[in-house]
Amino acid sequence: MTSSRLMLLDTASLYFRAFFGIPDTVTAPDGTPVNAVRGLVDFVNRLVEEYQPTHLACCWDDDWRPQWRVDLLPSYKAHRVVAERAADPDVEEVPDPLQKQVPLIRAVLDAFGIAVVGAPEMEADDVIGTLATDAGMPVDIVTGDRDLFQLVDDEAQVRVLYTARGVGKHERVDNDWVRARYGVDAAQYAAFATLRGDSSDGLPGVAGVGDKTAATLLGRFGTLDAIVAAATDPEGSDPEGRLGPGPRGKIKASLDYLEVAPRVVAVVRDLDLAGHDLTLPATPADPEMLAAIAEQWGLTSPVERLVDTLAARG
What we know:
By secondary structure, the chain is α/β, with parallel strands linked by helices. It is about 45% helix and about 10% strand. The chain has 15 helices and 8 strands.
């Protein structure tokens, strides 16, 4: 009997990679670019073949820049906004040829019967965090986003398949990998990212604190709370003098930021996502619709490959 294994896809991360990695000369019969769709289907096929998951979810950004995170830290992803909207999520900077493919991606996934899971006012990261927590089976998180390293848990058998160098060259991230790369444990990664900042997310970090200093502080104190306590109450919280005057001054100068940033960086792990069947289908949910989509958009080859792979798994 096959052991259960859950694969969680950071879907936008993958279709962005497909769009920029596959030439836009990959088109439908009418000339419409379908490189992101084709690439995503091929990525899913490759990952399912290699890792043999029994359950899979394409995790979705229902809101790529939730207002509650922006309220805490206005700079959060601000550089990616092309239009602000009061009642709906802000408009993200997405190339128009890719934006036009997103509904087709959803249609293909729905026709296959592959679970697409999102949550109101939440990012895909939060969906992934919730589904990975207490999953009851080993979990592979597929993403090019370093933020999700905070979910790596060797004891719970949660790892990240990190696609920053491409899906074909992905790295298997466990706690040893995180420690070797950053000098902290995976459970400390969110605090590490908070301290050093991340320009790709509009996270300023603590001025003057880079990777090395952040790792050193977390190695000495263990948690961000303990670092802040040592900076604000040096005699009571740091009797051994582990926090020098330079780092202490930098931490104290950033107390307002450190009050809110951890809640922005931390992935939500307790969403109500009941009602989703994550079982990987052995056959398409709507084979006629899938065949029609494949023919219309010139996706017959990648669709057939994934159909065959799912049948073999089933």
